Amino acid sequence: MLADLFARVEFRDPELAGVRITVTEVRLSPDLRHATAFVARLGRSDIDALLPALARAAPYLRSELGRSLRLRGVPDLHFQPDTALDYAMEIDALLRRPEVAKDLGSATEDPDFPG
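RESULT FIELD:
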């Protein structure tokens, strides 16, 4: 639902105007009072610069969620950058290095190697 809001809402904040934000995951606290949304900008790595603007927009987003979901209590929204894709790309780049590929090639040819 939060991702839908980002897709259809035009923000008044100039830092968020025209910016495409992807919500990759939302984690709720055990008491359901806080929700941490992990956000990213696909193909870009400047999401950290947008976190203060997202924090300013959180009360508005929270009220919109309350209206659309008709919940009695809507959790406070907190935003964190999703670095999983960056981490995966870093690991992929490491695995493609010639010295690592050479080691991986010899490991897969080992009859004792389970993979």
